[in-house]
Amino acid sequence: MAKKQKPTEKFETAIIVGPMPFPQKCIQASRQGQLIFVDGGMIHKGKFQKKAPGLLKNSFTLGDGDGPQKSRLNFKKNEQDLSDLAFCLQKMQKERGLKNIILLGFLGGRRDHELFNLGEVALFLKQKNNVRVYFEDKIEFLPAGTHRVHFHGTFSLGSLFPNKIKISGECLYPLLKWTKIEPLSSLCLSNEAHGDFSIECKEALMLIYSERSRR
């Protein structure tokens, strides 16, 4: 059984693993942080043993225990009115030093699960508004504020709440004045980045990478 995380231990990065497949390169890019397996995410334990064994030393598991691998849980969810990811994010609210969350294995599969995972992160960032959340290398949730991004390629911006945003810098379609964006509006669909640019937002905002090619 993984060593149980002490409540007094602090960490800046949480690597939370769910049950869906994800690229091996995401493990290689996540070498430091607190590793957390959310129930069915335990099927990926072997991958971490090979690629990043150091992360396993203080890893822990949580959920309701209905995953395909019946592992002993460090934290058991007894209520069924929230998902295992939402249960995990509730615990992350208490981590004062937390700056980044990397979610692996939460994209794909059932469409309802995928959409609600996005929704739970957006709700989390309403309370924990100083954390950046990454769904692998595909979607980055930016909390309210100003963010510098370096990127070459196609990207889209989307919000799950009514929002106001600005975009400036090296991109094809800047928004230099505060612009209202409605939930899941296509206003900021398929922009092109050519280096450094800034994004400002009043609420959490999804930065979705379509053709990701960092230089």
Structure description:
The protein has 215 residues and is α/β, with parallel strands linked by helices. The protein is 17% helix and 36% strand. The protein is built from 4 helices and 12 strands. A 12-stranded mixed sheet has the order 4-3-2-1-5-6-7-12-8-11-9-10, with helices on one face. Strand 6 (132-135) and strand 7 (139-142) form a beta hairpin. Helix 3 packs parallel to helix 4 (111-127). The termini are far apart.
DSSP E strands, number: 12
- Which sequence of SSEs, written as H and E, runs from N to C? EHEHEEHEHEEEEEEE
Largest sheet: 12 strands, mixed
Going across the major beta sheet, what is the strand order? 4-3-2-1-5-6-7-12-8-11-9-10
Low-confidence stretches: 1-8
Describe the global form: globular
Radius of gyration in whole Å, from Cα?
A: 18 Å
**How many angstroms separate the termini?**
41 Å
How would you summarize this macromolecular structure in one to three sentences?
Helices cover 17% and strands 36% of the residues. With 215 residues, it is of the alpha/beta class. Helix 3 (84-92) runs parallel beside helix 4 (111-127).
Q: How are the secondary structure elements laid out?
A:
Layout: E1 13-17, H1 25-28, E2 34-38, H2 45-51, E3 60-63, E4 75-76, H3 84-92, E5 100-104, H4 111-127, E6 132-135, E7 139-142, E8 145-158, E9 163-171, E10 175-181, E11 191-201, E12 205-212
Parallel strand pairs: 1-2, 1-5, 2-3, 3-4, 5-6
Antiparallel strand pairs: 6-7, 7-12, 8-11, 8-12, 9-10, 9-11
Key attributes of the depicted protein:
215 residues, alpha/beta, 12-stranded mixed beta sheet, 12 strands, 17% helix, disordered N terminus
